[in-house]
Amino acid sequence: MSIYSFLVAVRSDGQQLMSDTGETTSHLMGMFYRTLRIVDNGIKPLYVFDGAPPKLKSGELAKRFARKNEASEQHEEAKETGTAEEVEKFSRRTVRVTREHNEECRRLLRLMGIPFIVAPTEAEAQCAVLARAGKVYAAASEDMDTLTFDSPILLRHLTFSEQRKEPIQEIHLDKTLEGLNMDRKQFIDLCILLGCDYLDPVPKIGPNTALKLIRDHGTLEKVVEFIESDPKKKYAIPEDWPYQDARELFLHPDVRSADDPECDFKWEAPDVEGLVQFLVNEKGFNEDRVRSAAQKLQKNVKTAQQSRLEGFFKAIPKTEDQKKDLKRKHEEKVADAKKKKKEDAKTKKETKAKAHLNS
DNA sequence: ACTCTGACTCAAGACGCT
DNA sequence: TTGAGTCAGAGT
DNA sequence: AGCGTCC
After folding, report:
1. Is the distance from CB of A9 to CB of A273 less than 8 angstroms?
2. pLDDT tens for residues A291-327?
3. Other C-beta atoms within 10 Å of A294: how many?
4. Where is the XPG N-terminal domain (predicted)?
5. Distance, angstroms, CA A234 to C1' C12?
6. C-alpha distances in angstroms, A266 versus A58, A168, A221, A310?
7. Nearest residue to C3 via alpha carbon and C1'
8. Half-sphere exposure (CA, 13 Å, Cβ side) for A25?
9. How far is the CA of A68 from the C1' of C9 (A)?
């Protein structure tokens, strides 16, 4: 996901940044400096790449593919007849993360001494396993599915960027379940009903209705039964809606077990000359910047991994306005469930966040 | 009057100088 | 693509 | 904070 957003966002004159040979460098730029910043704040990150998507997702993916193709056509057309703005707009829509982008990012991480793993399928599921096993402190993702995959802690907006508009959120699964007064199975059912990546959403059922239905009936089986037997035909389950399969994916995703040798992660010193070769010689980055960045990395490898997260959490404002704002948001969306959680986390843990992003 | 969903819109990353 | 925010209209 | 620049 982040590679994608780098490709979309890191631009100049509507074009992605490129080396002089015309290869895109936006993803490397984004990865490099974000990772640097994270490390510089005392976090030892572990990256998880997506593997092959589960079969259940193929329907969704096919739709996306079709939309991309459509966007490509519009992009071509815009280049002929449209304004510069239109061209740029469609250009962003046609962005795809390629195998090459992924491989270059991995090469970059290797040179930086940052470990990573390629998940068998969904990265979020793998993150959850590693977090649950204590290999890392938490799973950082924007995707709420991470909780559904049973990660004990989810961090959102972990970018440490200067102009982070969103504060870092630390969401604890146990508190979330507690707040909802649900067990994990119900929580999974709720998330499926709310609309997950694998299934079409049920029309007319939004966050509130979903929550109510699960509360009233307990399980998806019962909910579906209720909906289908409702004489008023208020809701309609989509034709092809294998919710059991989706549930199975959340309960037993295809992941690398945490005690697998592949999950024996090491944070190492950066290969400075390798970085220079790659980023400067091959991709045209500024040598001074790369070297000073590499130096920072080096320094941080030695530094005892002491948390500096506090410094960032303290920035979270707590005015009355802010609180109101949170309350309002708190009442919406899937996030609803979890955001409620976040509120707790905020009012309580605020500054307590420890950042052994791993041990 | 109030609640809820759905449709629409917009922006999207990080650095460093002023 | 995603999310976040806003708005209108249907339903209760 | 705003804005040009990174490649």
Report:
1. no
2. 999 999 999 988 744 444 443 443 333 333 333 333 3
3. 24
4. 1-71
5. 13
6. 34, 25, 44, 25
7. A142
8. 19
9. 31
CA distance A283 to A22: 9
Give A162 CA → D1 C1' in Å. Answer: 12
Helix A184-195 to helix A243-251 angle (10° resolution) is: 130
CB A351 within 8 A of CB A312: no
State CA A44 to chain mean position distance: 17
* Contact of A19 with A110, CB cutoff 8 Å: no
Instruction: Give the residue from A30, A34, A35 showing the smallest Cα distance to A4.
Output: A30
Tell me which protein residue sits closest to nucleotide B12, measuring alpha carbon to C1'.
A9
A275 pLDDT more than 90: yes
Q: Which protein residues, judged by their CB atom, are less than 7 Å from any atom of strand D? A: A 10-12, 17-19, 25, 29, 163, 283-286, 289
CA of A211 to C1' of B3 (A): 14
**Can you say whether the dihedral through the CA atoms of A219, A224, A230, A234 is positive or negative?**
positive
Kindly state the DSSP code that residue A161 receives in the 8-state scheme. Answer: -
CA of A145 to C1' of D6 (A): 34
Tokens of residue A13, six digits:
């004159």
| pLDDT digit string, tens, across residues A214-262 | 999 999 999 999 999 988 889 999 988 999 999 999 999 999 999 999 9
Kindly state the DSSP code that residue A297 receives in the 8-state scheme. H
Q: What is the DSSP-derived secondary structure letter of residue A262?
A: G
Number of Cβ within a 10 Å radius of residue A293:
24
pLDDT of A187 = 95
For strand C, give the nucleotides within 7 A of a protein CB.
1-5, 12
CA distances from A56 to A66, A198, A223, A224, A242 (A): 17, 6, 21, 19, 9
**Cα A40 to Cα A44, A136, A157, A161, A187, distances in angstroms:** 9, 17, 16, 12, 36
Confirm whether pTM is higher than 0.90. Answer: no
Report the nucleotide nearest the CA of residue A26, measured to C1'.
D7
Q: Which nucleotides of D are covered by protein (CB under 7 A)?
A: 3, 5-7
